[in-house]
Amino acid sequence: MSDNSEHKEIIYLDNVEMSSTLAQLDHGLMESIQRGNSSSNTDESSKSKNGGLGASAVLKAELSASQSSSESRTESEQKFVNVVFNDYQLDMLIDDLIEKKMIASVEKAGAGEFVKINSGFDFFDFNILAGLNPQLYVIFMKLTHQSSESIKDTKIAFKNIQTLGEIFSSIMPNTYLIKTDGSLSMLERNNFRMNQGQIQMLSGSNRKITIIGIVENTALTNDRGMDKFASGDLSKIGGIMPSFADTMLQSIGILNNGDKLIKPIAAYL
Question: Is the pLDDT of residue 29 over 60?
Fold first, then answer.
């Protein structure tokens, strides 16, 4: 294994995509390991339950309490093992992709190719913008004795921001965006290792991020059939929302012509 020993603050990991890719690269090795773990856990559970058969009511209660405590401890230990195992899998994946020369540069990568990006970044969470309550900011400004004109302007500004968040949240629900030079990554909310408050600390960070992912498309290089749809060809209806999203993201400066659209497998600082 190559030197991947530097500390990684892993903030995002798509375990399904990572395991699938590793299974294909390593001919199912990871899947076999996981099945072995699952079988072992099942055996342990069976042994624990069978141990209480035929005991008195008091003994059964004690065994039940002991089993409950043991299961809680085992679950915690298993969670720790899973995290360590997944981190190890990520190192294996990076090594495999490098060894097999499967990582393309962002500039030259085509759809379906792997990329490894290391860059400064901008982070966008439209879900939290959609949840803004402009009236709360008005109340706060009144408490701090701001002028009526300033309060009015601020309320309008926050309302516009909220509307923008609602639009993008409806187009890309439960999705965060990370913009780097030449790419835009769309990250599934449930794959983050950070809570909502911690995620907000990413905004405005001057750190560099590393993203391992797959290029899904190139932005704004075609109209995804929208010209045909506009002329009445309903077979291109599937291109409406992607084209709309591209146009909206471009209009606010997040997406540029030729940017690679990335489905991340992992992201770390």
Answer: no
